[in-house]
Design goal:
Elements lengths: L1 E3 L2 E6 L1 H17 L5 H9 L7 H13 L5 H4 L4 H20 L3 H42 L2 E4 L3 E11 L2 E10 L2 H17 L12 H7 L16
Antiparallel strand pairs: 1-2, 2-5, 3-4, 4-5
Helix pairs in contact: 1-7, 3-6, 5-6
Length: 228
């Protein structure tokens, strides 16, 4: 592993970069990070059973897409908001006829809000479709697969391919300098104290358990299971 101002970098085969991601993920947990941003990175980082051009590409496209707007978060489609906007507009006309100008003004304002929300939801969906297609078909040919949130910035790319396998570069930067220093210390401890690192693999015990007529064992998983 190389450490620089731009982050923690690993160059090697797929197993090497998977191990690099596991070590950084575990180091973040050891220094007390336990938040949504951590779990987002832990989900995105490459796994031993994944392929960069399929699984990592899909996860990168998903995390890079435009966030949901207010209407989408409320579970309302553009059509739902437009229908509500029409109902509010009808209410405002009725209230005007009843000389209830204050209520009519409020209903008119709510109608406008729903129209704007419908337009926002529709545009976000359209942008996602375009950016997903562009990312999958264009950007992955020009730039590394990347991840970015308030906790870490990371990128991985295939830099060489030969008969004996592929070579990848995986770099992860912890955005907070103080936290980055703590993670660096933990990674140094791993280098000096751990002789062998067992990369986590996807366990498939259900089929075996069913064949033997026993309950499947509890999942071992998690960072502690990767070291000996």
């Amino acid at each position: 592993m190389e450490e620089s101002i731009s982050g923690f970098k690993m160059r090697g085969d797929w197993g090497d970069v998977v191990e690099h991601g596991e070590r950084i993920s575990l180091a973040l947990r050891e220094v007390g990070v336990d938040e949504d941003a951590y779990y987002e990175f832990d989900e995105w980082r490459p796994k031993t059973h994944e392929r960069i051009d399929e699984d990592v590409s899909e996860k990168t496209a998903a995390q890079a897409s435009v966030d949901e707007g207010e209407g989408e978060r409320a579970g309302q489609s553009p059509g739902d908001d437009l229908q509500t906007a029409g109902e509010k507009l009808t209410e405002s006309y009725e209230q005007v006829e009843e000389n209830d100008t204050e209520s009519a003004r409020e209903s008119w304002g709510e109608s406008i809000e729903h129209v704007a929300r419908a337009a926002d939801s529709a545009s976000r969906k359209a942008i996602r479709k375009v950016e997903d297609a562009v990312y999958r078909n264009v950007m992955t040919q020009m730039a590394p697969y990347y991840f970015d949130n308030e906790l870490v910035s990371a990128n991985i790319q295939e830099v060489a391919r030969a008969e004996d396998g592929e070579t990848f570069v995986f770099e992860v930067n912890v955005n907070d300098d103080e936290l980055k220093g703590k993670v660096s210390e933990v990674l140094d401890e791993y280098e000096s104290e751990i002789d062998r690192w067992h990369v986590e693999t996807e366990k498939r015990t259900d089929d075996v358990a069913a064949a033997e007529g026993v309950e499947p064992p509890a999942e071992e998983g998690g960072p502690d299971s990767t070291t000996t």
